[in-house]
């Protein structure tokens, strides 16, 4: 099954670059990257050492509900080019493993779909989950901190 890894929506990133508050209603915190582990959720690449970035609360779901996890993410402080949806693993995925979890059309976790997955197996795991009728999309999240990384969809 063809899949694609996708970044946070451009409209959300653009609003934050224009001064909008995060999903907790707070202003993002601005920092300077040391170049070590600062993954941008819009370009799905790393923020280079010396470049400014934002730390903010992000909820990758359309509405509040019990399964709508909100957590910290990083975003380049200045506009960056969106990651072009692709079946290739994005550069942001550089740790040894991640949580891969399926969500239904109701934006709720599909129980039994979450697993800590070696990075090289993420695409295959996502394909398997997306072959199920009850899984609408997949999240890739940090295996250590549960932070949202990106979304995987059917093409």
Summary of the model, kept short:
The protein has helices at 10-17, 122-130, and strands at residues 3-6, 29-32, 52-58, 71-76, 97-103, 115-118, 137-142, 148-154. With 155 residues, the chain is mainly beta.
Can you walk through the features of this model?
It comes from Ferirhizobium litorale. InterPro entries: DUF1203 (IPR009593). With 155 residues, this protein is mostly beta strands. Helices cover 11% and strands 29% of the residues. It has two domains: 8-76, first zn-finger domain of poly(adp-ribose) polymerase-1 (2-Layer Sandwich); 86-154, no CATH class. A five-stranded antiparallel sheet has the order 1-8-7-5-6, covered by helices on one side. The longest helix is centred in the C-terminal third of the chain and has 9 residues, at 122-130. The relative contact order is 0.22. The mean pLDDT is 97.
Distance between the termini: 8 Å
SSE order in H/E notation? Answer: EHEEEEEHEE
The largest sheet is: 5 strands, antiparallel
As a percent range, the share of strand residues is 25-35%
Shape: globular
Total helix count?
2
Strand order, largest beta sheet: 1-8-7-5-6
CATH architecture descriptor text of the largest domain? 2-Layer Sandwich
State the helical fraction.
10-25%
CATH topology of the largest domain: first zn-finger domain of poly(adp-ribose) polymerase-1
Gyration radius from CA atoms, angstroms: 15 Å
Given helix and strand content, the structural type is mainly beta
Average of the residue pLDDT scores: 97
State the low-pLDDT regions, or none.
none
């Amino acid at each position: 099954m063809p899949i694609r890894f996708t970044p946070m929506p451009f409209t959300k990133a653009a609003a934050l670059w224009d001064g909008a508050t995060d999903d907790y209603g707070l202003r993002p915190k601005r920092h300077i990257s040391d170049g070590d582990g600062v993954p941008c959720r819009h370009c799905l690449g790393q923020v280079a050492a010396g470049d400014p970035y934002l730390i903010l609360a992000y909820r990758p779901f359309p509405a509040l509900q019990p399964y709508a996890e909100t957590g910290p993410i990083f975003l380049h402080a200045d506009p960056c080019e969106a990651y072009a949806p692709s079946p290739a693993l994005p550069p942001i995925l550089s740790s040894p493993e991640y949580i891969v979890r399926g969500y239904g059309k109701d934006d709720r976790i599909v129980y039994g779909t979450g697993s800590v997955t070696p990075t090289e197996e993420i695409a295959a795991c996502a394909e398997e989950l997306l072959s199920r009728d009850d899984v609408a999309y997949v999240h890739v999240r940090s295996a250590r901190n549960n932070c949202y990384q990106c979304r995987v969809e059917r093409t």
